[in-house]
Amino acid sequence: MGLFITMEGPDGSGKSTQIELLRDYLSGKGYDIIICREPGGTKISEAIRQVILNKDFTEMGNMTEMLLYAAARAQLVEEVIRPALENDKIVICDRFVESSAVYQGIARGMGIELVYEINQYAIGDTMPDLTIMIDIDAGTGISRKKKQAELDRMERETMEFHQRVVEGYRKIAVQYPERILKIDGSGSIEDIHGQIAAAVDKIIS
Ligand code: TMP
């Protein structure tokens, strides 16, 4: 079996940069790496992403939103993640079920138990071996996003929503310390990468 690593954090926490650095680090050591993102990573999941993040779909209900994320995830697990792990690859996924627990379960108020229960159908026993959570303040994250591109439906949410996301991540990191590693996102890119590389080395050995 391969190794399944997921990267979590509020919008603008620097996940993408860290995923690239981790990919280069592990490729340099000779590992076979598969990178994917959520929602997305397959033709069908990317199409679902377009629906979920469409800034004009402001009327989307919380249940619809949660089920669409779970549907995109089910397809990604079946088509990409599970086969890659069966072929001994290291899969690094930008967001996974913890994003739903935090954004839909906590920030939208649907409850994390319900979110994990529904997602059980989507992922089965394909759970990450390690989840890295980059902790950052809501203000810092969203102002970074504003500089980058046009904001999507989720990024356009209120500051209170983004604040609940930040607090939600902190909460689940305390609740599940055995599988979620919280890293302070205010450090330098190199420093954060060093901490992530050390955690991954530890789990590989
Ligand atoms: P991204 O900007 O990191 O690509 O993620 C897309 C947005 O979707 C981001 O605002 C987080 C949100 N999201 C959820 O609300 N629930 C989920 O399950 C996932 C995977 C993402």
Automatic annotation (TrEMBL):
ATP binds at G9, P10, D11, G12, S13, G14, K15, S16. It is an enzyme of class 2 (transferase). One of its GO terms (molecular function) is ATP binding. GO terms for biological process: dTDP biosynthetic process; dTTP biosynthetic process; dUDP biosynthetic process. SUPFAM superfamilies: P-loop containing nucleoside triphosphate hydrolases. GO terms for cellular component: cytosol. Keywords: ATP-binding, Kinase, Nucleotide biosynthesis, Nucleotide-binding, Transferase. It holds the Pfam family Thymidylate_kin. The keyword ATP-binding applies. Residues 8-196 form the Thymidylate kinase-like domain. It catalyses: dTMP + ATP = dTDP + ADP. Its EC number is 2.7.4.9. The keyword Kinase applies. InterPro entries: P-loop_NTPase, Thymidylate_kin-like_dom, Thymidylate_kin_CS, Thymidylate_kinase. PROSITE patterns: THYMIDYLATE_KINASE. NCBIfam families: DTMP_kinase. Phosphorylation of dTMP to form dTDP in both de novo and salvage pathways of dTTP synthesis. Belongs to the thymidylate kinase family. This is Thymidylate kinase. It comes from Candidatus Anaerostipes avistercoris.
